[in-house]
Amino acid sequence: GQQLNQSPQSMFIQEGEDVSMNCTSSSIFNTWLWYKQEPGEGPVLLIALYKAGELTSNGRLTAQFGITRKDSFLNISASIPSDVGIYFCAGPPHPYNTDKLIFGTGTRLQVFP
Amino acid sequence: DVKVTQSSRYLVKRTGEKVFLECVQDMDHENMFWYRQDPGLGLRLIYFSYDVKMKEKGDIPEGYSVSREKKERFSLILESASTNQTSMYLCASSPGSAEYFGPGTRLTVT
Description:
Order of helices and strands of chain B: EEEEEEEEEEE
Radius of gyration of chain A: 13 Å
Oligomer: heterodimer
Structural class of chain A: mainly beta
Number of helices of chain B: 0
Strand content of chain A: over 45%
Number of helices of chain A: 0
Shape of chain B: globular
Largest sheet of chain B: 7 strands, mixed
Shape of chain A: globular
Order of helices and strands of chain A: EEEEEEEEEEE
Largest interface: A-B, 21 and 21 residues
Number of strands of chain B: 11
Distance between the termini of chain B: 37 Å
Largest sheet of chain A: 6 strands, mixed
């Protein structure tokens, strides 16, 4: 079945640094979603992408829908301690059925002051 | 803002007990989902529902059942709780594509 691979698995960075992470699939996706999950909480939707090549920002976060439609990227600029958490990509596995998602394995981000 | 609420943040139950986890969403979404999340295994779909009184099995339905009597409410039922059902349970709702999650229920079965 379709899988979403995220890299890196974890990142340990200094406050103020920029962060880049990506998500790849062996098959085409029509939608890419990025979520953040803080310890003990449910995932929160950060950014949704619906078109190949689309670049969307949400504050210090920027995500891109890859041109090949098989990947997506999330960047965080000038990281702060509250960026700590696990970042998941997700997308609907079937082109014409957008009701169920598959999730990436997550990138765990740790920010040191 | 979309709001998905779960009835409990933390629950401790004994082996063999019947457990109900409740989820309510206030955005009139058609679709609702129950996941469990375990370290190293990620999010795994237990059951989902596209409409009232409708349910479909996800990837790991064994040991669970669900009920959707009203559009806004989706309940997960553990008929006879077992220790391997100790986990974080997440409910989500969706109008299609993006899913919106509740805060989670951490269930411990002793």
